Amino acid sequence: MYCENTKKQFELLRNKKDAVILGIESSCDETAAAVVRGGKVVLSNIIASQIEIHRRFGGVVPEVASRNHTLALPAVIDEALKTANITARELDAVAVTYGAGLIGALLVGVSAVEAHVAANYISEPSLTPPFAALVASGGHTLLLDISDYNEYKMLGGTLDDALGEAFDKVARTVGLPYPGGPNVEKMAKEGNANIAFFKHAKGVRGDLSLSYSGLKTAVVNYVNTLKQKGEEIPTADICASFTKEAIELLSKTATEAVKRSGRNRLVLAGGVASNGDLRCALAKEGKKNGFSVLYPPPVLCTDNAAMVASRAFFMARDGKGLAGLDLNAKSHIPFGGGK
Ligand code: KG4
Q: Residue 99: CB within 6 Å of ligand 1?
């Protein structure tokens, strides 16, 4: 619900090229606030991570996350404004993540996948659509054709587990601490990819769909069998082998998606986009197939509020995204289903 005055302000915002937006992000285990000018210039980007709090539970505990967002958010917002050298009154708008994520956590800061893609407009201000994108996080693994700031279509993606989720599960299975992805990556460097978990389904599927639950289960079964036999768990080799299989399939499927889209750029987004092996594999494919690969620095790959503010800027430009204080949190939002 919003009043006439809010609508008028929104019209002003739509036409302001250098609008200053405060973004707030609390969809999972990061409490973040950022101030961004004109959708691309980051004046501040503050992230208070709860990783240490959740590590002892081996994953994110929703109630603990929402309680800690409540505690951290006021100071994080203060810090974002202070660092940007701006007062709350000088802001043109406030943008919040309202889904997808953990409901308890979202209610504190009432994302959408689109924001992860928008992180690339910040790290590479010369970037403009069209391009193809791969969003790989704890909740999504999607291949997209981004034809304009607010226009995109799905080219493919996972039918079951997200890639980040599979990384996290493999980490837990071999006893690596949360967050799983970076620890599996580190461990993989010390191992050999000499275990074939999933010998079939290596080829790119016609509908560009992916699946990670089978691979994940194969790793779990492999480890359980060794445990039952009382044999040693080759942690590094498991991490290297899982990573190789997961990434081979993804980079081949992403390459086919870029070809079908007819674009000459592939933009990476989401937490898994920090993975060096994935970046390397895609850069190689790009070289071979004539497309460039862009990715943000790790701080913009993970959940952050600068991408939320950037996304809000481009939504507002197209007259989208106005919400009142009755905006409710959603645990799932279909891609492109943001207000
Ligand atoms: O986008 P993100 O920060 O949060 C949400 O999913 O909301 O992504 C987090 C996911 C986690 O599953 C994490 O294990 C994974 O990204 N991740 C990685 C790496 N860094 C983070 N996976 C593989 N390699 C990494 N270096």
A: no
Nearest CA to ligand 1 atom 14: 181
Residue 114 CA, chain-centre distance (Å), reads 9
The token pair at 116 is 């992860």
- pLDDT tens digits, 62-83: 888 888 888 888 899 999 999 9
For the stretch 267-297, pLDDT in tens is 999 999 999 999 999 999 999 999 999 999 9
Among 195, 181, 106, 92, residue whose Cα is nearest residue 141: 181
296 lines ligand 1 (CB under 6 A): no
Q: Is the pLDDT of residue 108 over 90?
A: no
Q: How far is the CA of 7 from the centre of ligand 1 (A)?
A: 37
Angle at the Cα of 311 from the Cα atoms of 183 and 68, rounded to 5 degrees: 50
Contact 257, 208 (CB under 8 A): yes
**Cα(101) to centroid of ligand 1, in Å?**
14
Residue whose CA is closest, atom 22 of ligand 1? 181
Tell me the β-bridge partners of 48.
31
Q: Which of 122, 88, 87, 94 is nearest to 110 (CA)?
A: 94
Of the given ranges (43-47, 197-201, 221-225), which has the lowest mean pLDDT? 197-201
Of residues 200 and 44, the one with the higher pLDDT is 44
